[in-house]
Structure formats: structure tokens, C-alpha cells
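Per reviewer request, we include the raw input and output of the structure prediction for the construct analysed in the revised manuscript.
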Amino acid sequence: MEGIEISVTNVGTRRDIALFRVKGYIDTQTCTEMLGRITSVLQQGTFHLIVDMGQVHYVSSAGWGVFVGEIKGIRENGGDLKIVEMTPEVYDVFEMLEFNRILEYYDSLEEAIDDFDLSIGLDLTKSVAQAYTPADLSTGEVAVLDAPKSATARMRDVDGGRAKSRTTFTKPKIDERLLPLNEKIKAVILEDPTQGLNK
């Protein structure tokens, strides 16, 4: 078996989401490297994680254990771990083991990023340039000018830390006419999943 290659980059409107692009296999020999990379990101204070598994050909039970074992701590810190673009073989095992009840899966990276951005109260219908400007072009960091926050989605400081409540979040109401096309399509499908192109 070949090993594993993992690259980590920051994505999202505020570059506060860690994207893990994984290539190879996640098994008993490589899962420690995956766990080490996740732990390193969590220690830096990033709790929004996306794992791109489009080039992962096999995940053992030890590999799934890395994700499931970390999810509780991530969610207690107001974050989440989302998996995107699994190969059909990996997805079949994911679903068979019912990890879809624990971990969120998205067909595309854009969907997962949008969900994180919505969860912090960003209005995806407005131009990003209106809400954010680059603070330091050399590092690519972004400075927040006027990010919208709802009372339920906002993280309040508690003794210098973050409030650890995941159950109080509600997504902000957004005028569906202003949504991007892929979001409009999702809304139509959610409204009536049995509706097809020929109806």
C-alpha cells in the first residue's frame, strides 16, 4: 500500500477554515499522520475543518476513528469537521458504517465552505469585498470590517475562551431571490425532493 499525502490550506471568506487535501490511504499505518495534522490545526485554534477525500482510495476503521474521535472536541469548541468529495467506494463504507449520522458530507468543497460561512452569520448574497478587506497582502490574512452577527450565532467570550454551545445556532433568514444558482437549486430540491426535470 502506498502512503498518504496531506496538504493543509486556509479557505473560506475569512480564511478561518482548515482544508485538508488528502491523497492515498488512511489506514492503521497512516492514520497517526492524519491525526497529527488535525491536532496541530486544533492547537492553533482553528475548529472549522474540511477534509477533501477526492483522492483517497481506502479508509480503514482506524482512519474513520481519527475523524469520529476528534469530532466531539471540535464541536465543543464551536466548530465542525466536514468531509467532501469521497470516492464511491469510500462513500459506500462511510454510509454502511453509518458515519453519515455523525459526520457531515458534501459533494463539493464550495458547499461545505458556504455552510461554514453561513453558520457564522455571513450573508452570501452580498459581495465579499463589502464586508472584508485584506489586512496584509503578504500573508493573505483578512481583516473584518463589518461582519454581520446574529445573537444566536455569535460566539461570546467566556473567561477569555469561547462559549461552547452548538445547539443555539440558527441560520440567518436570507432572501432566496438573491442566492447564488447552486443555493437556489438546493432550496428547490429540499422543498420537493420528488420533483424531477420532466415534471
